[in-house]
Design goal:
It is found in: Membrane. With 1365 residues, this protein is an alpha/beta fold. Helix content is 46%, strand content 11%.
Length: 1365
Amino acid sequence: MTIERSSYEFIETDLLEPTEKIVAVSQGKKTQKWISNDRQTSAPRIDVPSTYDLSVVIPTRNEQENIRPLLAALQHALDPLCVEIIFVDDSDDDTPEIIVDVAEAMSSSRFHIHLEHRLTGAARSGGLATAVVWGMNKAQAHYVGVIDADLQHPPEQLRMFYEQANAHDVDLALASRYIPGGSYQGLDGIGRRFISIGMKWTARLLFPEQLWSISDPLGGFFLLRRSLLTGVSLRPIGYKILLEILLRCQWREVLEIPYHFRARVHGQSKANMKQGLLALQHMVRLLVEVPSAGRIWKISLLILLNIVVTFMSFLLPTFFPASGSNLLIIIFALMAGLDFFLFNRFIFPSFIGPSAFIVQQIEDAHAPAKDLIQPVDAEAPTQAIEVAENTDVSPSSSKTSENIYTSTATEERDNLVQVAEIPETEVPLAQTEQSAVSGPKEHVSVLRKKSFFGMIRLKPRKQFFKKLEAIVALLAMLLAVAWISYTIPGVLLVLAVLCIGAAIIFTKDVQRDHMVVMLLAIAVGVTSVDYLSWRFVVTNWPGWWISVPLLFAETLGAIHAFGFQITIWPWSPPKIERGDDPTRHPIFIFIPTVNEGVSILRPTLEGAIAARDKYLTQYPHSKVTIVVCNDGRVAHAEHWEEIDMLAKGLGVCCVTRTVGGGAKAGNIENARQELQATNDAFLVIFDADQIARPDFLLKTIPPFRDPRMGWVQTGQYYANLDNPASRWADDQQSLFYNLLCPGKAALNSAFICGTNVVIRAAALDEIGGLPQDSVTEDFAASIALHPTWRSLYLTDILATGLGPLDVPSYLKQQSRWALGTLSVFRSHWRDILLPQKHGLKTAQRFQYFLACTHYLCGLRDLIYLISPILFIFTGIPAVRGSTLIEFLLHFIPYCVLSFTALWYSSRGITGLRGIIIGFGSFPVLIGSLVSVILKRKIGFAVTAKRRDGKRSLNYLLVYCCLFLLCIVCLFWATQVKSHEQTSLFISVLWVIYSMLMLASFLWLNYLDIRFHAATLRSGTTSETVANQQYPTKLLHRPRGLTPVWNLGLAALVAYPILISSSLPMFTGEASSPFVLAQEKRAAPYIGVSLPVQLLKGWSPILERDLGTQFAIVGRTQDIHDQFDTAWANELATQHARPWITLQFGVFGPKQKPPLDANLPAVINGLHDQRIRAWADAIRDYGKPVYITIFLHADRNWSLSSGVANGGIPQDVSAAWLHVQSVFRQAGAHNVAWVWAPADPLHDQVYAPPVAAIDAVLQSFINYPGTKWGEPATVLRNLTLRYPKKAIIVEASASGPASQKAAWLTGLGQAINEFPQVYALLYHEGGPELNASKTQMKRWSLTSDSASLAAMQKIVLDLRRKNTSS
């Protein structure tokens, strides 16, 4: 037995440094020995073993009476294990001396006692918990037990802890007082029991994710795997070291074992109120420092904070009506930054750790710690030495590294220290890499009861709290997107998301290339949402036959653009589980053939033989059978017998069918059943032209060690790249196989692609073999298999084949794939779209939906091509209510970011050729779609591998016709004048783009025809054999774009977000709202409306005659005019407001209204550019403006009539709302909208929604010789029709002076009677369009003195009323 004794002072770094010291070893130098002559402890020199079975840490303080029985019990219980006992002593009595004396008396080569005595003062800071940490730092065994010295923990149970932890390979074995078989009777008194139970429940409720299933998380009796502490900084307070370990360490499985907490026999308990307060302080520290600790409460507090701020933000417009919208943006930006800071700093922070691949390998190879940590060199035994007090040793005497720690005397200088010489060893890679991962495992344990000893095993598994976090995160994301979309539309939305995305991504330890991909993916997703939401708003629903198909096409395109980003997102690589040895399973290589011929099939068989031989060289115990599945006989192919002869000559099996059916799938299934390739077999499928590389089996078979691995897919690459059609098609294939398939595999969504694949036969057996009712049997099988089986995609180029010989072959291939995939979608749409209990996962559903709808891109491209042509010819736009600037603000970010993301992720892999050849397939894709809809039966057709001399060019007719149609369309666009210019400009650009795509595809056909002719002249009929070297296009990004520039750009563009809710450099500041209901007035305003002839100079004359100042001055203007800002500013200097009646044109000859003045033209956006110009000017004016549009729309004499000139009553409301939307989008909120029908009492079928009306105009136009209306009666009825709306009265009369004066007197009395009247205006000049001076004089107030006096009295009465109030 060796006794080691040391004492030391507290050094802060002892607790702050990671406890990976426990695996510390010397890195090249032996620790220097110090011998103190004045203080020396003699001990028998007994060899200490190089490794221990168990280390036991015992913290002690004044436990002199308990040491002897404790050590005796431990020695008896742990015999014959090799054990080290580490006492960490804080005693002030004779406890250390007793430990030495007892240890000398219990000498044993398998019982090693080490004493660490901490001196009074700072060394004892932290109490029992820091003592345990120090002891665990010194421990060397694979498992470390912790037990108190007061004998309340039964020592004999420690042996069972060790045995059960080893047997069940758990990280922690905990003694529990609160599960069946345990008790807490040793707790003194009811008070202490109450506190113990209360503290336990406090911890469990505060940290439910980690502790809810642990019954005794505050105990001090436990055993843990030593490697569990690697890479973790323990900072405990008080006594609750187990709580620290459970929350900071990444444990996987815990075993709870019941025990009886005994009563103390000797000494006094150290538990008191101070220790309880320290425990609470400890919990608070863990809550703050450990991200996963109490995460559910942190998320809840963050959500509550956002809810409070959101509700408070709703009050901003009330207190700050002018700047409320800007303040909302500032608050949003600040809260977004705060949210993501708190989220990434305290809830889900990242760590700098090993790569995902290394972590995967660690998890795959997860084994007990005894297998991860190499034993200490037996030739360098640990020796006991003594160190003199006050001996200082330079830190340079030993070295430290990231993974290896060397003990030095620096930690313990100025004290008498007993130092053990530690031999040099190496920490295995798995343990070293794992040490970089810190923090508890982010999932919750569930209980699983065992029959032995009443123990309870806690095994990690996703449960309630994990799901709750995911749900909360999803809801938070949806709310954030909705809030951003509502608050910051267009370009600012993109900038905001880029800033927020950068804030998230740059806190993560990801590769530079991944950072850019993630940022672009976030931006594309948000711009897609922004653009589509805007498109739905501005869609021209009345012209649905143009607008709806285009909206469908754009929606489909946006979904696929966003789906592309989701697929290529840098997901973690799939984890391969460990199971049985896959090399012991039989392998069948199936090569189906129909009419390819010997020249094509021979290289394929030779490649398969080479792959087989190389595999058997490394795994000679395995069995590989190559099978040719010959369908030539049933297909009546020429020379089909030659295939049998070829197989026989090469020594491979050949199965020739005599009964057809099921196409390729039926051919393979026939051979599979005949050869009994079922159950534990692996099936390798190659098309007849696919030549395997020699290492194909060596790379595809090992992943099947995962017992749930259903299939391993590899890429399909074309080697005959001298062929233009194959070269362009390979660009399209590369995008799928090199970029999309790895992403699909990460989501367990990589489907079977028909060739170059290995499938587990047992998986096919479950679904009855390959489906034989589809021409894409591979895709249909994948949907059936994926709910229960896993898939993997390997990016290595393990086989190459032949691409399409020419463009017609390519189109035929695309048609077959589209027909099969769309047919599968028709038959399996429930499996893909509808949730099922044991069906596809969400990510798999989305990937299959993208794959199925991909072939709708033919319909999408045709709609893109036809829609602008239809608008140019018909004048019916797909979009209304939008200006060019607004369109660009939404479309340009979406378009540019989508193409940028595509370019960045696919650079070096594919290019424009792949996009062009995909576009050119739209006619055959539409044909396949029609066949699926009509349920036509189309047989399986193999892509041709031989050329024939004849070739039809009829398929090019559709492309040439469309190209000529585009030319005609462009010519027509130069002739039309009545179309909305914004839509016309966009349509012309899109037609030009379509022409470029069509011309590029026709150029490919030209190259293909020329190559075809040259090949025929050379006499070649078969395509080049696919054994050429394929130019690798595998995705390899040594580094991405420099993220510093992205971060700097994000910071730069964040500035506008913080200062405004719009783009002032483009659109100007939004105007302050003008709300009539908020105006405080005692009497109606007095105003005048004037014809253009009297506009200048007449208003001051009337004001002088009436003895008042007009508050409102009205005029009529055409939409083609401009807002007269100078006139409006002049009115503002006189404290007057402008009222404009806006007309959409002028009457032509014979008072005929122009066609573009009708309501449908307004609804379809024909005048949007001019409306936007008015809105911008009025917004920039900034002061209140009254506007009337569609004057007298309920009568046939109106320019924009709801009963004439192509309008219907319902059009009035639609056009009204459309004009308002343009003003609203421009930020022109300083407008009061005055609804002015000829008969407002009976306008129900014409009127806009009441909420869209600020005031109603009642016109009294009294012609001579007619019956004049009774003002009081009319106003009474109008207040009943519009009880909550302001009423503006406009009057004008021509007739005898007495009649005119009397009627004006009655009008004044009626206005005083109804407080709802907002203003009274007299219309000077009369109703005639081009009135003469004589006519205007008859309608004027100054036509006679009686009328003028009557109006003067009205003004005087209103002034008195205003003064008295």
